[in-house]
Amino acid sequence: MSSQSVFKSTWNSLSAFRPRYRPVSNANFSVTGMTMFEKLQKLGEGTYGIVYKARHRQTNRIFAVKKIRTEEDPDGISATALRELVFLRELEHPNILKMFDIVYQSQKLYLIFEYCSMDAKVFLDRLPKNKLLPQVLVKSFMYQLCQAMCFCHQRRILHRDLKPQNMLVTKNGTIKVCDFGLARAVLIPARAYTHEIVTLWYRPPEVIIAESPYTCSVDVWSIGCIFFELASKQALFSGDCEIDQLFRIFKMLRTPTDTEFASLTKKTDFMHAFPKFTDYALPSKALVFLDHEGFDLLEKFLLYNPGNRITCKAALQHSYFNDLDKTDLPAGSWDGSTLMLPPKSFLAEAEQTI
C-alpha cells in the first residue's frame, strides 16, 4: 500500500482537533501595508514573536503571519538581519515552509508564510491512543525531513531547533520544516517570553555543554530523536533541565568515553555529576518500534561524536528507505546526489497547500 493511501486513512482516523490558540479580534493589522490581511486566530507566541492565522482580503487565501518582536532601536532592524531574511526567502524547497513576503514598517517586521493546520506533534497526539503511526508514514515523514535538511546542509544552513513542533503536516501528507534558522538569521535582540523546555529534548550533548562551533551534526541528532518519536509516540530523552537531559542520554546510550566524546569527558568536574552507566539500553527501547534497518539508522543519528554521525545525504541513501515508494513525495526520490534546484512546480504546489 502506498504512503499516500495510508496517510489518507490515518488522517481520517485522527481525533477531533481542538485548537489550543485563542481567538482574537478580526481587526486589521495596525501597520500600513498589512491592512490587506485580516487576523483570524492567534496560533502561537514565542521568543521571537507572535504568529497569527490571517486571511488575505483580496484573494481569501489563508496565511500564517509572524510578527517579529524587536527591541526599541532608532536604527530599526539591522541590515544583516534583513539580508539573511531575504536569503531565507530564496530557500525554496517543497519540504520547507514557504515564506512569501517580508513587510517592514514602523520598526516592526512581519513574515508572511504559507499556512498549515497542524504540526507533527499535534498529528501524533491526535492518533487513537492504541494506534502508532504506520511504518510507511514514519518512513515517508523521515525521508521528507532528511530531504529538506540535506538541501539546507548542502547550502551550509543549520536549523538548530528541529523538533516535531517545527515539522508541519499538510492534508496531503507533505512535511514542511518551519521556524528555519530564525534564531540565527534574525539577528534581533529579543527577550525570552516563554521557556520551551521541550526544545531541550532534541538537543545533542555538545549543544547542552555549549561546545562550539556547531556543525550540521546538531540537526542530525535532533532528527534521530524525532525518528524515535514518530515511531513510538514517545519522546526519547525527556529531561526537565540540562543535567537531567544528559543523565537520560547517558543512561540510554552509556556514559561516553574519551574516544566518543572527549570535549565532555575532559570536563572532570562536570562528569563527576554522573554515574558511569555501562548498559546500552537503546536496543531494548527502540526495537519494539523499529525493524533492524530502522534501528541501524537510528544508531547512526545518535552517535556521541558529532563527526561520526551520519549525514542527511547518507541517511537518504540508507537501506531503511529502499522499500519506500517515493513517487508521490514532493521532492521525489532525490537523495542528495546532486545539488537539487527547487522543482518548477514548487510555487504551484505551495499555493495548493495554503
Automatic annotation (TrEMBL):
What are the GO BP annotations of this UniProt entry? cell division; G2/M transition of mitotic cell cycle; mitotic G2 DNA damage checkpoint signaling
The lineage's top-level taxon is Eukaryota
The keyword Transferase is assigned to this record? yes
Xref: InterPro entries: CDK (IPR050108), Kinase-like_dom_sf (IPR011009), Prot_kinase_dom (IPR000719), Protein_kinase_ATP_BS (IPR017441), Ser/Thr_kinase_AS (IPR008271)
* Residues reported to bind ATP: K67
> Which parts of the sequence belong to the Protein kinase domain?
37-321
Write out the similarity annotation: Belongs to the protein kinase superfamily. CMGC Ser/Thr protein kinase family. CDC2/CDKX subfamily.
Task: Provide the protein's localization.
Answer: Nucleus
Species classification: Eukaryota, Metazoa, Ecdysozoa, Nematoda, Chromadorea
Q: Name one GO cellular component term.
A: nucleus
Instruction: Tell me the SUPFAM superfamilies matching this sequence.
Output: Protein kinase-like (PK-like)
Protein name per Swiss-Prot or TrEMBL: Protein kinase domain-containing protein
Keywords of the record, alphabetical order, are: ATP-binding, Cell cycle, Cell division, Kinase, Mitosis, Nucleotide-binding, Nucleus, Phosphoprotein, Serine/threonine-protein kinase, Transferase
Its recorded reaction(s) are: L-seryl-[protein] + ATP = O-phospho-L-seryl-[protein] + ADP + H(+); [DNA-directed RNA polymerase] + ATP = phospho-[DNA-directed RNA polymerase] + ADP + H(+); L-threonyl-[protein] + ATP = O-phospho-L-threonyl-[protein] + ADP + H(+)
Tell me a Gene Ontology molecular-function term this record carries: RNA polymerase II CTD heptapeptide repeat kinase activity
